[in-house]
Amino acid sequence: MMVPDINPIVLLFASIFTSNILLANFLGMCSFISISKDMTSANGLGLAVTVVLTITSMLNWVLLKFVIIPLDITYLRYILFIIVIAATVQILEMIIDRVSPALYMSLGIFLPLITVNCAILGVALFMQIRNYNFVQTVFFSFGSGIGWWLAIMALAAINKKIQKAPVSAALSGPGITLITIGFMAMAFIGFSGMLNVQ
Amino acid sequence: MKMTPAMRSAQESMQPGVITEEGFLGDEEMPIVDMIVRDEGEMISLGLSFEKTAEQLSYLLKEGQKGLGEPVTIDDKWLIRVVDPRGQLPCPFKDGLFHKMTAEIIRKSTDETLIVTDMSIHLFLEHHFIEGKGSQFRLEPQLLKRILFD
Amino acid sequence: MAFLIAPAAIALVAALLAAAISIVDKIVNNYGEVDISINDGKKVIKMDGGDTLLSSLASQEIFIPSACGGRGTCGACKCKVTSDVGPHLPTETPYMSKEELSDNIRLSCQVKIKADIELEIPDELFNIKKYKSKISSIRDVTHDIKEVTFDLQGEEINFQAGKYVQLVVPPHNKVKGYTQRAYSMASRPEDKNLVQLLIRLVPGGIATTWVHTSLNEGDEVELVGPFGDFFRSETDATMICIAGGSGMAPFKSILYDMLDKGETDREVWYFFGARTSKDMFYLEDMRELEKKWPNFHFVAALSEPEEGSSWDGETGLITDVLDTFLKTKIDPEKTREGYLCGSPGMIDACNNVLSKNKIAPDKIYYDKF
Predict the structure, then answer these.
(1) Cα distance between residue B79 and residue B84, in whole Å
(2) Looking at the partner chain, which of B23, B69, B99 has a beta carbon nearest the beta carbon of C244?
(3) Measured between beta carbons, which residues in chain A are less than 8 angstroms from residue C20?
(4) Do the Cβ atoms of A84 and C29 come within 8 Å?
(5) What is the pLDDT of residues A66-120, one digit of tens each?
(6) Is the Cβ of C170 closer than 8 Å to some Cβ of chain A?
(7) C34 forms bridges with which residues in the sheet?
């Protein structure tokens, strides 16, 4: 299979705006919905996801090219990708606990949950399916992380406004959040004419 | 019934050894949502309202506090002792911090006893959670009716 | 052998990652030896980092008062940290006032020691020890208050009358962990090898229920102390002491200490409230004390005396009795000081009466929970 001919910079912006991992592919919704209540933790989680995404995609690319493909065990890629992600999160968790206990406390259970954040496995699988080279993978995964971060910050900001709005009791909480995400996704469709990469 | 994450984390905090050594669940292990629904049903079938009952409990607690740790007779019906041991406890639903103010309410005619705390009134009124069967602080609807209203 | 390739590949990758994790763990979670410098270097402790401040200090026999035993629910184990240990954690902020936040007062059970740390604690905390005691007697003084005497088995406790100790409640029945509860000492400071506590049954309370139902003479129990900043001032002002129930404890200690030390020129009024005569205790001891010490006045009041009882003392709420005495019997020309022991509600109520009778707020001392 050929490596697609896309400039990495284009790929970076495409993954942030036109094919935002969250709003175009709807991956990584669980933590997106539950942690978007205040800006500080949203910011922390966004940062954590971006870092984990970038590191794991690079590791997974290496694993894919030098272990999985040569040994012809592509059918095991899910397991291998997931254990790499799990280990990376574990290491990151220890480092955050040491460096910033306040961030560690505010991320709480969501830090280990990044392990099962579908956005992260999703990016690794896209990278494999689309056959990106290493540089493209770095830019694509970094862009996807930034895109996720951007989306969660936007949602947290909107949620802050919503807290003051008279939302009916039946819709408050996850209900209105899901509707908001729908509108955000529609707004992001507006970007899709600008770049189109796969 | 489906548990929201907030409910699930509340249930975890209610386990023995988390907020209090004995926990809030008594001998029960079912999801607290089911306990709440079951106990709401019992409250309704006994004709009790959460607001009225909590109001009555708070009234007794407030009057009982005037005894400054000693038992007080109120309206000739109840004997109440309010104690306030050192320390505070957070609500398992994460919406408040409570002194360990504890009242022992004795209905004088029958000698039946009910233990009420600042926290249990809050759980009762705000969350309709009356604690699990077997918990010392459970506000058993039958007992509430007999002690407070009969 | 081809079928081995897949499991071998996974095993290898997993092993590599596990190795990476344990290497990072060795580096990141190894805080090495750190210096804990207390009160400007008065005492410097060298120890391995990584644990909380409360338990690290406890392992060095320095006990910061804590009512919950390090769970972050009582907010008692505050201490001032002068070096940088990062911002306040969400688990600390609910217990802190604005001034405490800006003074960098921390909950020592929440602060993890990761580097050299400097902190300030009251000097008397150095005096705090853990005692392995044996119960020498348990006596019912009323139907719900027990007087428990602990023999310190050869060790000595040095304390000012009015201080409290923490009783360590071990796991029992449904209670799975160790808990600690604070009780004021009723024993005299002169008796250095014993501690006496008055423990009143709290409805549903873990520790008091344990004391009332499971403790027996001869049992071994751990005590930690002494703690507290409730003691008499060194003036000759008239002391007005108010208590009820187990609030008797610190005053019993203070009064006998004053008698021991010959401070009997000082005038003391001790107001003690109970509901019925079966809740009243130590009456004889106090009358005895009055005989030995003419300036000491014990005013006992029953709020709901049984009908037809032979009670000849005061009746009514202790706050009302106090008010009457302040207006009619106690000389307002002399400086008066208030001493209170009880719940926030009782302290507020007594504070009101005292301040209405022109006793300055800074002359009212209390042991507030």
Answers:
(1) 17
(2) B69
(3) 87, 91
(4) no
(5) 988 888 888 888 889 999 999 988 888 888 877 777 777 666 666 777 777 888 8
(6) no
(7) C47
Top mean-pLDDT range of B32-36, C124-128, C224-228, C311-315: B32-36
CATH of domain C238-368: 3.40.50.80
* Closest residue to A83, CB basis, from C13, C25, C89: C13
SS3 at position C219: coil
Q: Give the H/E segment covering residue B45.
A: helix B32-45
Q: Break chain C into its structural domains and give their ranges.
A: 33-125, 128-227, 238-368
Structure tokens at C81: 């940290």
Residue A166 burial by CB count (10 A; 0-12/13-18/19+): exposed, middle or buried? Answer: exposed
Which CATH number applies to C33-125? 3.10.20.30
pLDDT of residue A135: 92
Pairing between β-strand C129-140 and β-strand C220-227 as defined by DSSP bridges: antiparallel
> C274, C280 in Cβ contact below 8 A?
yes
Q: What is the mean pLDDT of chain C?
A: 85
Q: How far is B86 from chain C (nearest CA, A)?
A: 4
Q: What is the mean pLDDT of residues C115-120?
A: 86
Write the pLDDT tens digit of every residue in C348-359: 888 888 888 888
For the cut 60, the answer to whether the pLDDT of residue C85 exceeds it is yes
pLDDT at C86 over 80: no
| End-to-end CA separation in angstroms for chain A | 15
Tokens of B70: 């000693």
Q: Which residues of B touch C319 (CB under 8 A)?
A: 68
Q: Which pLDDT does position C369 carry in this prediction?
A: 52
| pLDDT for residue A74 | 86
| Strand C296-302 to C364-368 pairing | unpaired
How does pLDDT run across A169-188, given as a tens digit for each residue?
888 778 888 899 999 988 88
Residue contacts between B and C (CB atoms, under 8 Å): 106
Q: Residue B1: pLDDT above 70?
A: no
**Do A80 and C9 make contact, defined as CB atoms within 8 angstroms?**
yes
CB contact under 8 A, A102 and C14: no
Dist CA C309 CA A41 (whole Å): 66
State what percent of residues in chain C have pLDDT above 70: 98
Which residues in chain A are contacts of C10 at CB distance < 8 A? 76, 79-80, 83
CATH for C128-227?
2.40.30.10
Contact B84 C345 (CB under 8 A): yes
Report chain C residues whose CB lies below 8 A from the CB of A63. Answer: 13
Which two structure tokens, joined as six digits, stand for C302?
Answer: 């029953």
Subunit contact C317:B85, Cβ cutoff 8 A: no
List CB contacts (< 8 A) between C9 and chain A.
Answer: 67-68, 71, 73, 76, 80
Specify the number of domains making up chain B. Answer: 1
Chains sharing 3 or more CB pairs under 8 A with chain C: A, B
